[in-house]
C-alpha cells in the first residue's frame, strides 16, 4: 500500500490506475519490505513528497522518474540522425581547420615556431619585456619536454578563439541593433555560460564521431563564445550617444557609422571580451581532453586516471603558465587600444 | 549680409508621445502644454514655430532649458522628425526628402557643431576635422589638406597629429568648428556650441565665430541659453519659451521693445551700455542738416559704452553719428541715459528682491 492511494481512490481513478499496473515490473526496496511483512509507520512526519515515483506506487499508470530521463534520451536519439545530417557537413570545416592547425604546428620546428610567436607577441603588445617573459615561459615548458603538448593546446585555442571572434562579433553587433534579438539571445547565452562544461560533451558524443576534432572544437566554441558576444553588444550600446548623433548629422550611412564610429569606440570592450574568450577556451580545452582533444589536458587526465601525481601537477602548472601568457598578451593589446582612446 | 531666405520653418509642431497626431488636434484646439501632459500624457515640444532664416546671417535661438531649442535645431536636419509643419531649405521641403536626399542634405548643405564637441576619440584632430569630407568619399590626401587649412584658420596650427583628449575644451570645440567649416556647407547649425566652455574661452570663441563669419558669410543657426551671447552674435534673435516663440526680431529692437513680461525679465539683467548700439537709439538727421555745436563724432555701429567713455560722463553733450564717413544722425547723452534704463522690467525686477 502506498501513501497516495487514497487520492486516486477518492477521485475515482482506481480502475485507470490498475489498468496500467504491470505485474512484473522491477521490484523496489519498499515492495520487498512490504512482502516481508515489515509495516512502515505512516505519520505526518514522514509524508513523502508526491514525486513521480511515489505516485507510481499508488497508481501504476503514472510514469516513473526514470522514464523521464529515458524519454529525453529516446527523444534525442530520434532527432539525432536529422541533426547529424544537417550539422555534420556544416561543421566539417572545423575539423579540417583544427587538423591542419595541429599538423601545421607539429611540422614546424621549434626554432621557427618560437621566433614567430615572439613576433606575434611583440606586435600585439609592443613590449620587449613581455616578449622575454613569454619566451622564457615557453622555453621552460620545452625544457621539461612539454613543448608539443603546449603547442597543441595553443593551436586549438587559437583556432577556437579566432572562430569565436569571427562568429561572436557579428552576433553581438546584430544584438546591439535590435532589442528583440537581444531579448531572445540573452537567455541562450545565460544557458551556455551556466551549463557545466561536461554537459556540452554528452550530446556531442552522440552526434559526432569521437575521433573527430570538431567534437571538442564545437564544445570549446559554445563555451567560450559567450563573453565576446556579450561585450560586443554592450560595447556598441555604450558608445556615446552624442557621437552617434554627430555621425548621423554628418550623413553617415549605417555602414560608415558601424565601421567608422561604433566598432572603433566599442573596441576596448570587444577586446576585453576576446580576452575572456581566450581564457575560457583554455579552461575548456583541458576538459575537452576527455573527448580526445590533444594537448596538456591529456597529461592532466592521465594524472587523474593513473594517479600519476607528478605528471598531472606538472601539466597543470603548464596550463597555468599558458593562461598567464595568453592573459598578459591580450591584456597588453587591450591596454594599447585603451590608451589610444581614453574615456 | 543678404536678405534671401535660406531656411524657412512654417507652422512646425512637435509632440512627444504615443499618438502625436491625436495630441496635435488637441493642441490646435487650444489645449495648453500642462493640460496636454496631465490629460493626454503627451509632451508638447514645439508649438507653431515660424522662422525665416536669412542667408549669410546668424540666427540665434535662445531659451532656457526645456524651451525646445535643441529640439528645434534638430528638426532642420531631421535628426528629429516633426509632427506637423514644413521646413524649406532653398525652397525645397526637407520633410519630403527620401533617405538619399536627406543624407545628401546632411553631407553637403548642413554641418553641425555640438555642445559636447562629439569628436571621434580614436582619430587625430586633422582626421576629425576632415570627417565630413571623408564621409562624402573624398580622398584622404585631399581632405587632410582641407582639414589642415581650416585647423590653421581656427588657430590650431600644428595640432593636427594630436588626439582630441590631448586638447583643452576650447581647443576641442575649435576642432568641432573646423570640422563644420571643412565640409564647406552653406548652413552651420550650432547647438549650444560654447555653453560647455568657461567664460573667457567662450568670449574668445564668440569673437572667432564673428571674425570667421565676416569673411565666410555662412548661414548660421546658433542655439544658446545665454542672453549676452545671443545679443553679441545675433543678426536675428528668436526667443523660445515652453516650445513657442515669445518674440523674434532684431536683437536691439527686442531689447528696446520687449513685448512680453518674460522677455522684460530677461533683458533687465543685461549690461545695456555694452549691448545697445548707437544706431538703435540715434535720431536721424533732420533734412540732412548736420547740427553745429556738437562734441564729436561717433560711429554708427559702436556701443553706447564707447560714447560714455568719450563723453566722460557729461550728460549735456551731443554727438554726430557717422556711417562710412557720412553723418547720418545725432545722439544726445540724454537719450543715451534713458536707453540704459529698461522701461518696465526694472521695477518688476526690483520688487522681487
Looking at CATH, which topology of the largest domain in chain A would you report? MetI-like fold
Please state the oligomeric state of the protein chains shown. heterodimer
> What class would the helix/strand composition of chain A place it in?
mainly alpha
Q: Spell out the helices and strands of chain A N to C.
A: HHHHHHHHHHHHHHH
What's the domain count of chain A? 2
Separation of the first and last Cα atoms of chain B: 43 Å
Kindly state the percentage of residues in helix of chain B. 40-55%
Mean pLDDT of chain B: 86
Distance between the first and last residues' Cα of chain A = 72 Å
- Continuous helix count of chain A: 15
Shape of chain B: globular
**Strand arrangement across the biggest beta sheet of chain B:** 6-7-8-3-9-10
How many strands in all of chain B? 14
State the helix count of chain B.
17
**What overall form of chain A do the CA principal axes indicate?**
extended
Text of the CATH class of the largest domain in chain A: Mainly Alpha
Largest sheet geometry of chain A = none
